[in-house]
Write a structure and sequence with these properties.
single chain; mainly alpha; globular; DUF3775 domain-containing protein
């Protein structure tokens, strides 16, 4: 997956995740729609594409400190974290942090 495609997927996931945060309890169907959109987007990715998004997620959540290690963990995890990522109410925050860390990494690199 090229960098532009990865960024486009992450931006989409951030927007969908941020949209569901603003929903109140009475708007459960809207929250469910965003979850389905997030799940479907993640599920439509190839294994390589998903591992790139997962690596951003891992770095953004501070579970892994560097992108090389994050990529190794993501490749080994395959699609197992997909459901948890789709349910993560803070997905937009975590991916935004991962994206910022990635940009810093590339800038320093």
């Amino acid at each position: 997956m090229d960098a532009q495609s990865t960024l486009a997927v992450i931006e989409y996931l951030v927007s969908q995740s941020a949209a569901r945060v603003g929903k109140v309890d009475g708007e459960r169907s809207g929250v469910a729609e965003e979850y389905v959109a997030i799940f479907d987007e993640l599920d439509s990715l190839t294994a390589d594409e998903f591992s790139e998004v997962l690596a951003m997620y891992l770095v953004g959540s501070s579970r892994v400190k560097d992108f090389e290690q994050a990529r190794e963990v993501a490749v080994a995890a395959k699609f197992s974290p997909l459901e948890a990522m789709a349910h993560d109410i803070n997905l937009h925050v975590v991916l935004a942090r991962g994206l910022e860390a990635y940009r810093d990494h590339v800038h320093k690199g």
